[in-house]
Amino acid sequence: MATRTEKDQAILELIEEIKSTNVLYLADTSSMDAESTTNLRRACNKAGIRMKVVKNTLLRKAMERVEGRDYTDLMPTLKGQTSILFADKGNAPAKLIKDFRKKDQKKPALKSAWIDEAVFVGDDQLVMLSNLKGKEELIGDIIALLQSPIKNVIGGLQGSGGQKIAGLVKALEERAA
């Protein structure tokens, strides 16, 4: 049994880990055998996701002590065995869980997720979360949308219409002179 000091240290470590990310997933990894759990840990490490099996009471206390963030909606999901997945990209843990479960496994099951202050509860959210676009993808989409009208204008200037436009510009210059 852990001493009070060890528990306090574990809570402080959890607080620091929680504060260091905007993406955390709570998963049920109970009934997974040792081999499956090891494979899940390896997959997490390979994908840049930190996985930690935690005691619900310690995690609850750590979440309550993180200032400026409200994890209240995650608290009801802190039942049974809980593994916490920390990631940099919002959809990374969902994709990993989804791919991992393709091997005819029902676990890990998503209990809940907290992504940039948005809360998702229930395993039925997994597919939607795996399709979430990351910040970089969204910025790329916006840039592509902004470039689209410019490309159309340049295309018009370079195509056969370009000769017409050039002719109009020349005619306007001659009129002005």
Provide keyphrases for this structure.
5 strands, 2 domains, Alpha-Beta Plaits, five-stranded antiparallel beta sheet, 177 residues, elongated, 7 helices, alpha+beta
Nutshell version of this structure?
The protein has 177 residues and is of the alpha+beta class. The protein has helices at residues 4-19, 34-46, 56-65, 92-101, 126-130, 135-158, 160-176, and strands at 23-28, 50-54, 82-87, 109-115, 118-121. The protein is elongated.
Question: What's the helix and strand layout?
Answer:
Blueprint: H1 4-19, E1 23-28, H2 34-46, E2 50-54, H3 56-65, E3 82-87, H4 92-101, E4 109-115, E5 118-121, H5 126-130, H6 135-158, H7 160-176
Antiparallel strand pairs: 1-3, 1-4, 2-3, 4-5
Helix pairs in contact: 1-3, 6-7
Which band does the percent of strand residues land in? 15-25%
CATH class of the largest domain: Alpha Beta
Classify the helix fraction into a percent range: 40-55%
- Specify the number of helices: 7
Indicate the multimeric state.
Answer: single chain
Q: Number of domains in the coordinates?
A: 2
